[in-house]
């Protein structure tokens, strides 16, 4: 399996034909997986916004005031408003905003970026990243497209690449019922390959001004296994989400 | 960047020299990252156990009884005892056991596997996976070694490869203070590259009886960035962990 970045992608503007820009720069094969950073998908879809587009309501002002108290830096209530508008549920409102976006992804600040946003204050995630992936895939010789983002997670430090949209492949490969080396049936193993592919792509794309938002994975073999399209957990079965429902942040707690 | 599995690794037995088995099968370069599945590290370290090695105390019996009630299958109290003995904290005891292992990793059942364990009932994770990684690295021409496992996570379905031990490289690359494409300093971006490498390796290793527990990553460039060795979060700053402290599972909650 091989991963390489597509070189010389220009600065992406609203309305750009991302698939054409990719096609012109790389000879793709049908079984390639093309991983595209959400940043550039958002740019082509015109998801650049200004803080002034989000006049803050009372809820956003309350949230921003609480967050401003926590550290010394003033938080912009318009930013909180943008996060609320991009979300269907607020899982945590202090010490940061953890929400479920309209398409099911749980992340901090609804994935709104304030980096790599020339020409605006904010870059919102694509509205329906799997539809974005399908639109790009249609115009590419490669059969599989993943839209990626970078985000943090509980229990482990740092951020890693994740898939937020995908097309042309299942989200997971399902090893249940396969035999292990001891001839024993495996019980619980569903391997989320799109997140693993996104993580791998992020090693090549990086986070800075490297300018490599498109990474091709060549030679990945899904194998002859059943697939599953489940990717974002529902509340049922997501016990951490259930725990967060009853919890509120106490700045004293958990300090040494 | 390229990933390939090391072929023809035999069934690993306690005491086997894993580094020698790898060295004989692949021409490694100094800048390769060698990802080794915890399964085979555990086997060389004799971490195979029988349920009878863990006579259940009252706590384990209580836990197993509660778990048995939840679904129809009888849970073995000796298994709960093994999980408790491998852990320093129980984060969730229903509907499954989520614990912090002695080396800091948060996972279900303390990462104890019941698959791919010829010759025993249980395979425990290596005691100190970063020391295991260092021991293997010392005997390899490659400078970087990661010990991997597969585990699930909140919010997202399925499992993915993660790093539980590493040597010869930082856990994360720290983009803070670097400039983005807009000349803006990036604030919060710490990229956990060892987890991303482990996820990538898992795409090649798979979960079944494929027999590819060792994957080489060639051509990964850490780049000229500061590194951080933080990998497992402390309670302070891990709000999900704090939320789990006050929570207990209610089988009715979260159901449709
Ligand atoms: N060529 C090019 N690269 C971009 C553009 N926008 C972002 N990038 C690069 O894409 C990569 C990922 O950017 P990032 O902001 O981390 O995207 P995210 O992970 O989807 O939030 C970085 O290497 C950026 O330099 C663009 O418009 N053109
Ligand atoms: N050659 C060989 N492969 C093994 C052995 N044990 C496990 N594997 C393979 O290593 C891969 C990962 O195994 P798995 O049990 O998922 O390891 P884990 O992710 O560390 O828990 C699979 O392809 C297994 O078939 C062994 O002793 N020898
Ligand atoms: Mn982003
Ligand atoms: Mn990123
Ligand atoms: Mn395991
Ligand atoms: Mn595995």
TrEMBL record, chains A, B:
<feature type="binding site">
    <location>
        <begin position="38"/>
        <end position="39"/>
    </location>
    <ligand>
        <name>GTP</name>
    </ligand>
</feature>
<keyword id="KW-0630">Potassium</keyword>
<dbReference type="GO" id="GO:0046872">
    <property type="term" value="F:metal ion binding"/>
</dbReference>
<dbReference type="InterPro" id="IPR023659">
    <property type="entry name" value="F420_ligase_CofE_arc"/>
</dbReference>
<keyword id="KW-0436">Ligase</keyword>
<keyword id="KW-0547">Nucleotide-binding</keyword>
<keyword id="KW-0342">GTP-binding</keyword>
<comment type="similarity">
    <text>Belongs to the CofE family.</text>
</comment>
<feature type="binding site">
    <location>
        <position position="207"/>
    </location>
    <ligand>
        <name>a divalent metal cation 2</name>
    </ligand>
</feature>
<dbReference type="InterPro" id="IPR002847">
    <property type="entry name" value="F420-0_gamma-glut_ligase-dom"/>
</dbReference>
<comment type="subunit">
    <text>Homodimer.</text>
</comment>
<feature type="binding site">
    <location>
        <position position="150"/>
    </location>
    <ligand>
        <name>a divalent metal cation 2</name>
    </ligand>
</feature>
<comment type="function">
    <text>Catalyzes the GTP-dependent successive addition of two or more gamma-linked L-glutamates to the L-lactyl phosphodiester of 7,8-didemethyl-8-hydroxy-5-deazariboflavin (F420-0) to form coenzyme F420-0-glutamyl-glutamate (F420-2) or polyglutamated F420 derivatives.</text>
</comment>
<comment type="pathway">
    <text>Cofactor biosynthesis; coenzyme F420 biosynthesis.</text>
</comment>
<feature type="binding site">
    <location>
        <position position="149"/>
    </location>
    <ligand>
        <name>a divalent metal cation 1</name>
    </ligand>
</feature>
<dbReference type="Pfam" id="PF01996">
    <property type="entry name" value="F420_ligase"/>
</dbReference>
<dbReference type="GO" id="GO:0052618">
    <property type="term" value="F:coenzyme F420-0:L-glutamate ligase activity"/>
</dbReference>
<dbReference type="GO" id="GO:0005525">
    <property type="term" value="F:GTP binding"/>
</dbReference>
<dbReference type="GO" id="GO:0052619">
    <property type="term" value="F:coenzyme F420-1:gamma-L-glutamate ligase activity"/>
</dbReference>
<protein>
    <recommendedName>
        <fullName>Coenzyme F420:L-glutamate ligase</fullName>
        <ecNumber>6.3.2.31</ecNumber>
        <ecNumber>6.3.2.34</ecNumber>
    </recommendedName>
</protein>
<feature type="binding site">
    <location>
        <position position="113"/>
    </location>
    <ligand>
        <name>a divalent metal cation 1</name>
    </ligand>
</feature>
<keyword id="KW-0464">Manganese</keyword>
<dbReference type="InterPro" id="IPR008225">
    <property type="entry name" value="F420-0_g-glutamyl_ligase"/>
</dbReference>
<feature type="binding site">
    <location>
        <begin position="205"/>
        <end position="212"/>
    </location>
    <ligand>
        <name>GTP</name>
    </ligand>
</feature>
<feature type="binding site">
    <location>
        <position position="43"/>
    </location>
    <ligand>
        <name>GTP</name>
    </ligand>
</feature>
<feature type="binding site">
    <location>
        <position position="116"/>
    </location>
    <ligand>
        <name>GTP</name>
    </ligand>
</feature>
<feature type="binding site">
    <location>
        <begin position="9"/>
        <end position="12"/>
    </location>
    <ligand>
        <name>GTP</name>
    </ligand>
</feature>
<keyword id="KW-0460">Magnesium</keyword>
<feature type="domain" description="Coenzyme F420:L-glutamate ligase-like">
    <location>
        <begin position="9"/>
        <end position="219"/>
    </location>
</feature>
<dbReference type="GO" id="GO:0052645">
    <property type="term" value="P:F420-0 metabolic process"/>
</dbReference>
<keyword id="KW-0479">Metal-binding</keyword>
């Amino acid at each position: 399996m091989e991963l390489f970045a597509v070189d010389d992608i220009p600065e992406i503007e609203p309305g750009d034909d991302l698939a054409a820009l990719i096609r012109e720069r790389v000879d793709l094969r049908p079984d390639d997986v093309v991983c595209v950073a959400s940043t550039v998908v958002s740019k082509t879809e015109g998801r650049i916004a200004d803080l002034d587009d989000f006049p803050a309501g009372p809820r956003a002002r309350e949230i921003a005031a609480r967050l401003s108290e926590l550290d010394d830096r003033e938080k912009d209530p318009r930013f909180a408003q943008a996060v609320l508008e991009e979300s269907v549920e607020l899982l945590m409102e202090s010490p940061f905003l953890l929400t479920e976006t309209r398409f099911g992804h749980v992340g901090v600040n609804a994935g709104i970026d304030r980096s790599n946003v020339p020409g605006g204050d904010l870059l919102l995630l694509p509205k329906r990243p799997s539809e974005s992936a399908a639109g790009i895939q249609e115009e590419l010789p490669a059969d599989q497209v993943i839209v990626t983002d970078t985000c943090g997670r509980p229990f482990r430090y740092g951020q890693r690449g994740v898939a937020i949209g995908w097309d042309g492949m299942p989200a997971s490969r399902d090893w249940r019922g396969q035999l292990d080396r001891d001839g024993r049936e495996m019980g619980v193993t569903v391997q989320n390959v799109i997140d693993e592919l996104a993580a791998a792509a992020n090693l090549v794309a990086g986070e800075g001004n490297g300018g490599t938002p498109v990474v091709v994975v060549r030679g990945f073999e899904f194998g002859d296994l059943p697939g599953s399209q489940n990717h974002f957990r529902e509340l049922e079965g997501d016990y951490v989400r259930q725990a967060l429902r009853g919890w509120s942040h106490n700045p004293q707690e958990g300090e040494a």
